[in-house]
TrEMBL record:
Enzyme Commission (EC) number: 2.7.1.31
UniProt xrefs under NCBIfam families: glycerate kinase
Name of the featured protein: Glycerate kinase
InterPro entries: Glyc_kinase_flavodox-like_fold, Glycerate_kinase, Glycerate_kinase_RE-like, Glycerate_kinase_sf
Length: 400
């Protein structure tokens, strides 16, 4: 008998006794919101919310469950917005040919692009490129969107493999980084320690002058102890020496561009906001055409999540791993803040929980992810998340 069958058997008795007590036996008046992020490399947010809900429903059969897939600017953010999916050839962070998809809304003249789509970490995980990788491939998507009529680019800053300060995007828009002798710098963020100027002679002005809404997946600044290199460099494959070099490189980029490195959110996606703020300010004379906002809070507002949580008895969120970075503006922390404000019970499901949570928050750890090469990988993932949803429901019913 599988773990889920054991769980089903254990739950029937609990549900029957509890449902008589809840609002005169009216279990259908229990409202639950399921609002997870993607479980990276395992399940996209829409699937994880569906499977967790399935588990909850196996325990609390008549509950009203509202699935609200979430994102923080990382992979899957663009797909949560309305528009046409555009797929085209571009390059990954290592400069290899790939394909990437973004969402274009012609009515709004707006494109929704995830940096993770072209410049994401999974494509180079086996051979990381923290100092030599760039965001050129994301710039190709930006230029394509503008050619279709986009005047606003909503850029999801999360899941990137790069620490290039957005200079790869600038290169795709015809803006090249130069050293003190006027020679073009090699690709990647590491070379920016030698940055002296930019060549804008071949700039794609329509693309560079769009309005930018940058959805940061963290509130960390560009440089320093809590900066892009030190916080995110190791997970992008950077050694201690490479982290120090990348931090110096971003500091040099800020110095040359005149961008304040201490602004919250400017460390997201390897400092992309730095390069985009500089070029926008150069063209418009002000930084007013660049807005850096919390990706998770923006998506939450777009999904009507604050109102849904306020009207719910329980909200369940989750991600692949809950750690110290999670509290820096990612989905789980945003959902928990909304639940706390609303006085709504909350639960977190994660592969591992490595940071402190409020003792009132229910938790379920999934353990190691199944082998992605296994033929029944998706079914294994589904079973883990269904079981986790059922466990949360059981724990919720058994609270004192």
């Amino acid at each position: 008998m599988s773990h889920s069958h054991h769980l089903d058997a254990a739950l029937d008795e609990s549900f029957d006794s509890w449902s008589e007590d809840f609002n005169g036996g009216n279990a259908s008046s229990l409202k639950i919101v399921v609002a997870p992020d993607s479980f990276k490399g395992t399940a996209p947010a829409y699937k994880s919310s569906e499977w967790i809900s399935e588990g909850v429903q196996s325990v609390i059969r008549d509950a009203k469950i509202d699935c609200v897939p979430m994102a923080d600017g990382g992979e899957g953010t663009a797909s949560l917005f309305d528009g046409e999916e555009i797929t085209l050839p571009t390059t990954d962070a290592a400069g290899r040919l790939t394909e990437a998809t973004y969402v274009f809304n012609a009515t709004e003249a707006r494109a929704y692009i995830d940096v993770a789509a072209a410049s994401g970490l999974p494509a180079v995980k086996d051979n990381p490129v923290p100092l030599t990788g760039d965001t050129y491939g994301t710039g190709v998507l930006v230029a394509d969107a503008v050619s279709r009529g986009a005047r606003t680019i909503v850029l999801g800053l999360g899941g990137s493999a790069t620490i290039d300060g957005g200079t790869g995007i600038l290169a795709a828009l015809g803006i090249n980084a130069l050293d003190k002798d006027g020679h073009a710098l090699r690709h990647g963020g590491g070379a920016l320690v030698d940055l002296a100027d930019f060549d804008t002679a071949k700039m794609n002005i329509p693309a560079a002058s769009v309005d930018w809404i940058l959805l940061a997946d963290s509130a960390f600044p560009a440089t320093g102890e809590r900066g892009a290199a030190r916080v995110f460099g190791p997970q992008k494959g950077a050694s201690e020496d490479e982290v120090e070099l990348a931090d110096r490189a971003l500091a040099r980029l800020c110095e040359v561009t005149g961008v304040d490195p201490d602004q919250p959110g400017y460390g997201a996606a390897g400092g992309i906001s730095i390069g985009l703020t500089w070029i926008s300010t150069l063209l418009h004379g002000t930084a007013d055409h660049v807005t850096v906002v919390s990706g998770s809070k923006t998506v939450a507002q777009a999904q009507g999540l604050p109102e849904k949580i306020a009207d719910a008895h329980l909200v369940i969120t989750g991600e692949g791993n809950y750690d110290d970075q999670s509290a820096g503006g990612k989905v789980v922390s945003t959902v928990l803040d909304l639940a706390k404000d609303a006085g709504t019970a909350a639960a977190v499901i994660a592969g591992a929980i490595d940071a402190k949570l409020d003792p009132d928050v229910l938790t379920v750890e999934l353990g190691d992810a199944p082998d992605p090469n296994a033929p029944d990988f998706n079914e294994q993932v589904r079973e883990k998340l269904v079981d986790a949803g059922a466990q949360v429901a059981l724990d919720y019913l058994q609270r004192p």
